[in-house]
Amino acid sequence: MTKDANLEKITALAKRRGFIFPSSEIYGGLANVYDFGPLGAELKNNIKQLWWDRFVHKRDDIVGLDSSIFMNSKVWEASGHVSSFTDPLIECKHCHSRFRTDALPHENLKQCPHCGEKEGFSEPKQFNLMFKTHIGATEEESNDVYLRPETAQAIFINFKNILDTTRKAIPFGVAQMGKAFRNEITTGYFIFRMLEFEQMEIEYFIHEKDWERFFDHWKEEIITWAIEVGISKDNLRFREHDEKERSHYSKRTVDLEYNFMGDFKEIYGLAYRGNYDLAKHKLMYVDQQSNEQFIPHVIEPSFGVERTILPILLDAYHEEEKRIVLKLKPRIAPYKTAVFPLVQNKEEIVTKAQSVHQNLVALGIYSAWDARGNIGKRYLSQDEIGTPYCITIDYDTLKDNTVTVRDRDTTQQERIKIDQLQEYLMPKII
Ligand code: GAP
């Protein structure tokens, strides 16, 4: 299957089943902006919860932060983003379309991918990726604010607040997830390069002498997370940035890349930011035991939420002889179960099924309800959205209080007692 065919199928399925919609569609859309529909919102929340659980709740050395998007614009001046958070852009001399130089294929350096003319391109110009707006009624420079292009800076500027309130000692990390915004000129695959996206970032504060050890630790953590959340190991590789490619703050950067059918692209970044940011914000650390004062160094693993979702969908998508199935990890699947009454016209069966459905939801097992059409069609519909278990209430249920549980991946069915459903399902879905 070609790259485009697979992406087209995922894009179509995402829209058809309510995972991802193009933004503002009824007004002709808005390029590089998407909305997450009912199932997409569930999938996204499940991924974020899993990440938070793994990196904040399950670790004593990391605490969370939820900062505002707007910050004093001096933050971005100090961090170097106002002067250096730029992409080099060239413009076609014929149609004036703009391209990122690194996004153009080598063979296209003469021919414009938009109009096809070979009049050549302008010299590269630096283009700042931050969206700028104003607070208040007047557009004076002092009122400028930026939409944050990374969640990281808010962690740095709260460094002292966090130290004062948590009594954490180095090494420790601060995690934050939330929206980031970049005025991206070029498009990417589907939700790969967006204007508005979500990041899940950790700034891990260390002693300079330990940076290599922690860099290796986080490299391992990043890939382990990617595999556990459902991205195929075979489609992942690390790539080291050379000096020219590295961001203005970084001393070493490694990208975790995903193989979009032959085209490896960054999904996560790992950077050693040295003490660049804390030094710029003039923030210090005092060791409580030795009284030593120094500026901590930082290792930064940065994960994109949408760049997690796209590889997951591509790797989960399977076409089998008679069905399309999304083999999502149960923990992140929008619904964990779907409950069906075998028939709609037998009241006892429908009532029993409703009570099974409501009990599952009350237990925190998010469950779909489907009473339409025949059972075969209901299975196919749930397979396509990745529901791991389908539970059918039938005539036997009324006699022996058992239900049929059908496994999405094997399609095997088992009879389980209703009062044992929780025990049966829980280990499989968490
Ligand atoms: N704080 C470091 C930082 O922001 P980055 O490599 O520029 O580093 C980190 O971005 C991650 O954010 C990327 O690996 C990717 O997952 C995500 N990301 C960046 N730009 C994006 C965009 N335009 N659309 C979707 N995700 C993006």
TrEMBL record:
The keyword Aminoacyl-tRNA synthetase applies. PROSITE patterns: AA_TRNA_LIGASE_II (PS50862). Its EC number is 6.1.1.14. GO terms for molecular function: ATP binding; glycine-tRNA ligase activity. Its main location: cytoplasm. It is found in: Cytoplasm. It comes from the Bacteria. One of its GO terms (cellular component) is cytoplasm. SUPFAM superfamilies: Class II aaRS ABD-related (SSF52954), Class II aaRS and biotin synthetases (SSF55681). It holds the Pfam family tRNA-synt_2b. Substrate binds at residues 100, 150, 197-201, 300-304. It catalyses: tRNA(Gly) + glycine + ATP = glycyl-tRNA(Gly) + AMP + diphosphate. Keywords: Aminoacyl-tRNA synthetase, ATP-binding, Cytoplasm, Ligase, Nucleotide-binding, Protein biosynthesis. One of its GO terms (biological process) is glycyl-tRNA aminoacylation. Residues 8-330 form the Aminoacyl-transfer RNA synthetases class-II family profile domain. Catalyzes the attachment of glycine to tRNA(Gly). Homodimer. This is Glycine--tRNA ligase. The gene is glyQS.
